[in-house]
């Protein structure tokens, strides 16, 4: 079962649009939301005749702390280091909607934060919830990179750090195979970063980032498969005036 779960992200990535939105306040607090939406035109190309046979409906909302409470027995057995990881996700809210009738497949994660350093890697939320429910080892730690954030009032950083170079090499080979398989399709699989700041932006490390007319927000669009092959292209530094 675990192997299947770990395989799913590749198929998901090649027919998905992900938007990561952050609103930062002058005191360093703010809100982060990650929204993943299945692109129906892309999915139709991949699913072929199976597309019309889908019979799925799910519309659920959760708070991660509900999982900690519900599976308190499993949580109580964890070492302090793992409890600390789960506690970082306590206030994360997520909403999942899967409707084959409406052809809407969306997953959203949201959290208010006191400071940027306290933001968890929201992309691992569902995996950690599954680990807690089934009393698994931390499957999200199988990722080959970690993501964190920094903001001191003037400098903001989105930090992607490689944690397992050997695992990354394996994933790169897998993605290359996927690229060959989907080369004939016109698929939409993007990661869009949308960041809003309390003051004007002075500079951005990625020249492809587009600043708003008031210079207090930016948008950067990246290709998801590129981010999987070379996670560090998701690094970003923004300096405010």
Outline the structure in words.
- The protein has 241 residues and is of the alpha+beta class.
- It has helices at 2-13, 40-47, 64-70, 72-76, 80-87, 125-134, 165-181, 224-229, and strands at 16-24, 30-38, 57-63, 93-99, 104-113, 145-151, 155-162, 190-196, 201-204, 210-211, 217-223, 236-240.
- Strands 3-4-5-2-1-8-11-10 form an 8-stranded mixed beta sheet. It has a 4-stranded antiparallel beta sheet with strand order 6-7-12-9, with no helix packed on it.
- β10 (210-211) and β11 (217-223) form a beta hairpin.
- α3 packs parallel to α6.
- The longest helix has 17 residues, at 165-181.
- The N and C termini lie far apart (50 Å).
- The relative contact order is 0.17.
- Mean pLDDT is 86; it is low at 1-11.
